[in-house]
Design brief:
The chain starts with a helix and ends in a 5-residue tail after the last strand. The protein is built from 12 helices and 11 strands. By secondary structure, the protein is of the alpha/beta class. The strands form 2 sheets. Strands 6-5-4-7-8-11-10 form a 7-stranded mixed β-sheet, sandwiched between helices. The chain binds zinc ion.
């Protein structure tokens, strides 16, 4: 049990106060050596004990999971319970897709759109209209079939690295809650740059490791999703990554989201565990009960509001929404 972490992170959130590691692992994005240990934590979603370590680059501020699970072990961490939670979240959130469409159409109102990691195709389905020709990439063959049936889009079933699209194919590429799961972000970003038409835009959304919630909750923050999230971006490191392949920032903002209840559950579960009460891990729980939802709302309105008011608010909300553009070739 390590509730101290929450306290530590709250009162001691300066990057420079992290203990040094051996500095042998260079930053996978900018190459700088001397990364520092950022935090340790388990897979709280599944209630597992294995402890993971995150490192933070002192150059570009990227945070990454050191010793990530091997790709051959993926199925151990992406359980059926996890997939169920994710697709339920996507299918029950028209408001989420509406907001993203509104953001996107400020920059492009029509054209050819590719959604990276499109899951069961909820966003593509939402975008279905005469204005868009839709494509997706989905690693799971079942997911790809479901997405195709639901959205009418052309879905490539496989990895981004293996997708056969030609250079300059897309007006828009979207990537929502996916980049942080991928082993080779630089390679993915390079493909995005290749596939975009000159003037095309990339709309990417990732959790914000420098968010107020991330700092307050530390290893209890639900956005860590250890060990499924391999990279944890700040606005600065995301921008650095995109610019390193030649994309240019058009808009980058952070937004709050309402998932703070999950972080609170992780804290509560640990509190109960110290007195010998083992709760069912979040991945295997049903819908939150009414008393729990009421308690959560109360905490959100009172304790959490006070905590967040005094937390370092640099970086702000929990999600980073960024739009990058591929420049038109200069003559
Ligand atoms: Zn770096």
């Amino acid at each position: 049990m390590n509730l101290v972490t929450v306290q530590d992170r709250f009162s001691n959130s300066e990057v420079d106060s992290r203990p040094e590691n051996n500095g042998l692992e260079p930053c996978p994005i900018c190459g700088q050596s001397g990364a520092q240990e950022w935090l340790h934590g388990p897979d709280r979603l599944h209630g597992r004990q294995e402890n993971y370590t995150l490192l933070r680059c002192s150059g570009c501020s990227l945070v990454w999971l050191t010793k990530p699970p091997k790709p051959s072990e993926t199925h151990l961490h992406y359980t059926d319970a996890y997939h169920k939670l994710i697709s339920a979240g996507g299918e029950n959130s028209p408001e989420r897709w509406r907001a993203r469409k509104a953001t996107l159409t400020q920059y492009k109102e029509t054209g050819v759109l590719l959604d990276l990691g499109c899951s069961s195709g909820s966003f593509l389905e939402f975008m279905r209209s005469d204005s868009w020709k839709l494509y997706g990439i989905e690693i799971s063959a079942d997911g790809a079939r479901a997405a195709e049936a639901k959205s009418g889009a052309v879905i490539f079933a496989g990895s981004i690295a293996d997708a056969p699209f030609a250079r300059d194919s897309f007006d828009v590429i979207t990537c929502f809650d996916v980049l942080e799961h991928l082993y080779e972000p630089l390679q993915v970003m390079t493909r995005v740059e290749e596939w975009l038409k000159p003037g095309g835009v990339f709309y990417v959304l990732v959790p914000n490791i420098d968010s107020a919630e991330g700092r307050v909750f530390g290893s209890y923050w639900h956005g860590l999703e250890l060990p499924r999230h391999l990279f944890h971006y700040s606005p600065a490191s995301l921008k650095f990554l995109a610019e390193s392949v030649g994309l240019r920032e058009v808009s980058l903002e952070t937004r709050r989201n309402a998932a703070v209840g999950t972080s609170l559950r992780y804290v509560w579960d640990d509190v109960f565990r110290t007195v010998g009460i083992h709760q069912t891990p979040v991945a295997y729980r049903g819908e939150a009960s009414i008393p729990w939802r009421a308690a959560r709302k109360l905490v959100r309105m009172t304790v959490l509001r006070a905590l967040l008011a005094t937390a370092p608010l640099v970086g702000g909300g929990e999600s980073i929404h960024a739009i990058f553009r591929k420049e038109k070739a200069s003559a």
